[in-house]
Amino acid sequence: MRTVAVIGAGISGLAAAYHIKKLARERGAEISLIVFERGATAGGKIVTDKVNGFVIDAGPDSVVAERQKFEEFCGELGIGRDLIEPKAGSEGVSVLLDGKLERLPDGMRLMLPAKLAPLLSTGMISPLGKARAAMEVLVPKKSGDSDEDAASFVCRRFGREVYDRMAEPLLAGIHAGDPGHTSLRCAFPVLEEIERKHRSLILASRAKETAAHKKDVRFESFANGMAELTSALSAAVGLENIRLGKNVRRIARAETSMPKYLVEIDGDAPVLADAVVFATQAYEAGKIIEAFDKGVAALLGGIKYVPLITVSLAYRSAGVSDKMTGSGFLVPHREGRLLSAVTWSSSKWNRRAPEGYDLVRCYFNGAYSNDAFALDDDALISAAQVELKEAALITGKPLFGVVHRWDMGMPQYTVGHRERLDDLRRRLEGYSGIFMTGAWSNGVGIASCISNSEAVAQKVISYISGI
Ligand SMILES: Cc1cc2nc3c(=O)[nH]c(=O)nc-3n(C[C@H](O)[C@H](O)[C@H](O)COP(=O)(O)OP(=O)(O)OC[C@H]3O[C@@H](n4cnc5c(N)ncnc54)[C@H](O)[C@@H]3O)c2cc1C
Q1: What's the CA-to-centroid distance between 46 and ligand 1, angstroms?
Q2: Ligand 1 pocket by Cβ (under 6 Å)
Q3: Percent of the chain residues topping a pLDDT of 70
Q4: Which listed residue, of 3, 163, 352, 430, carries a Cα 20 to 30 Å from 94's Cα?
Q5: Structural domain contains residue 355
Q6: pLDDT at 318
Q7: pLDDT for 230-274, tens place per residue?
Q8: C-alpha span between 190 and 147 (Å, rounded)
Q9: Domain for residue 93, yes or no?
Q10: 296 and 418 part of one domain
């Protein structure tokens, strides 16, 4: 019987544990699986609150995934029937430009204009900006193989105006970070790949050869909120295998002939494990491993995080629903607002608000400044209300607001992230039985966290089957 310890029960840890258990069963490997989670509940950033009949997601509110693959996964977990897609009519997103909402043109693919006609007819870009964007079809490939920040990539291919008025709020929204520091290669690898293979994004899109054309990638959520996913995963892992309220302080090498690790937990006896899967935030993994390997700890601790706040506002529908067109709006940095994005939650998803009411979710991200983070909850709710009134003309007072603060919300894949991960991988190769996963490594989205953890689970099972 081998013991596998997983540290952290966010989506990455739960998905790793689920796949380890599943693969062990399939291969007839006997394992004892223990998941340590310092929080009182499993789920990490995935938290759903039910307040007065409203379903409020505090962190992620949807998954962007390959439809068939994700539906199969949810089917295995018994929650396939609870999957929901955005409501018909909620397509499209607006951008706040010069204080007014402008609809993003059709044909925006991979966050960038992939069709010329809608781009040329949009009012979002000046004639000069459009002329520059159309020249993308002539722009040569970047020479050399160095990493580039996402802002430079867009400016180089489409010009500054497309970046400032269209791409920046989209790119900043995904990682909650400044695209001027975000690694194109790690955060938006598809864009780098298309340029490498096809040179022009517009021409590649017309040739229908991009990866996005081939895959059926969709937004999906759950009827009862995102926590359905982590609850179902926890049940599949086995609640008896998940130890909540257990903070892992550090790991140490055990004095055994085989490589084994002592997992030291606050207030509990240490646990001897054959394999340890780190599935915490990078900086937490760094603290746990510090006494063991300072170099690895420094690399993990060097991965920057940006704070995020979501403010969910509950309204009576009268005077609100008619303003909620599309799925929401984005606020470019150049607008100089506190707010960075808004989702019309109850317009986009069913069952988010009771009949006759609406739910609006506002995001404040720390990509450029921490001004919003100095405000208390009441001030944040007021700020959200004021900005909604100015941008979207929602004048009604919310019935209530719910604020969720994520002080270390989103890991940043800054330029050079790939080299940091390669260095980390090389150093970890020296330690049999230590594995790492998490949003900081290979994609922040939930679908990436799941597939990353599945790949790690395969390595864990191969490892323990061979010792
Ligand atoms: C506001 C917000 C909105 C988002 N929106 C979306 C979205 O719509 N779609 C999407 O795909 N993604 C979204 N994301 C990103 C996504 O939610 C996260 O990247 C993902 O959930 C992270 O999962 P994780 O398991 O890697 O990390 P986490 O969820 O951070 O889990 C790590 C776990 O490790 C535990 N832990 C840490 N240290 C220890 C220790 N020493 N001992 C024991 N346990 C420990 C923590 O308590 C935590 O539970 C959003 C994120 C935020 C913050």
Answers
A1: 7
A2: 7-13, 36-39, 44-46, 59-63, 247-248, 279-281, 284, 288, 308, 310, 406, 409-410, 438-439, 444-446, 449
A3: 97
A4: 352
A5: yes
A6: 92
A7: 999 999 999 999 999 999 999 999 988 888 999 999 999 999 999
A8: 13
A9: no
A10: yes
